[in-house]
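Contributing new records

If you add data, match the layout below exactly. Sequence lines come first and carry their own label; structure lines follow with theirs. Keep one chain per record. Anything else will be rejected by the validation script.
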Amino acid sequence: MTTYASAIAFLLLLPLLASLGILYWRRRQQRPTLAFSSLAHLKAIPAGLRARLRLVPLILNIVALGLVIVALARPQRADTKTKRSVEGIDIMMVLDVSDSMLIEDMKPVNRMESCKLMIKEFIEKRISDRIGLVVFSGESYTRMPLTLDYKLLLQSLSEVKISRNVKMGTAIGVALANGVSRLRESTAKTRVLILLTDGENNSGTIDPETALEIAKGYGIRVYTIGAGRDGEAQLPIESVDAFGRKYKRYQPIHSTVNDELLGLLASSTGGKYWRAETTNALRGVFNEIDRLERTKIDVNQYTKYAELFPPWLRAGVLIWLVAQILGMTILRRAP
């Protein structure tokens, strides 16, 4: 990209153009005359080469002056380089996959699908953060370690479902400890764990308080989210009839979120606890977490300028010299 360091020099073109206008006007007004009895013979004489080229020195002087003015404006080529320094965040998502997450009180289908949808939207907003996924019910396991491969992570998330082959219950302490273990060796300046559950700790070999001390020891910030409403609910259960056809029946269940425990886990680590009873509320929670945990990006811009005026100046001086030589030799005008 070409810029001009002293663009104000172009104002010198105004008096130059004004001088050209005045010169043209004066030449039109002040034509020399000589009385002859008849001009017929003079008109028949063709103009010589010197006569046709008499204005060349003047034109060359004007061009030379224009080139010098451009040189005075100091044209430059700007070469801009941008250096980005990204300080990523390591985030471990810990998702409850116990039976109660199938309760259909959150759109689009149930608590599980609502949480998966919001996690998906959250991941798609991140740019340079490593994100992992831990799931739990009565026990916990890692579906995806910390990774920048968001495509693979989203595929793994989409395949999360309730499994009847694992221990039932809600082992919040074990899940928290598992997520912390995945973050403890991280070298990221900021390490965050986001725990989503719709129940209270009723299973597992590690109690939440012990897992909390481990998280605090490693400086891991914990955000907790309680999903769904408290009270009586209907738990959908898929069954198969005598003809092998699947059908859904509902079983009464009492659903309770331990707000006190989840609040303690968050506040003790510098995080925050939210209660989300609808999908829109859950989306607002993840939007707030996205604002709280922003990746730090430092952008340093360097611009190097290369001076382009020398060719313009050399051309102007050369054309001016040619004009002077022509004006004093073959195109010299007599008084």
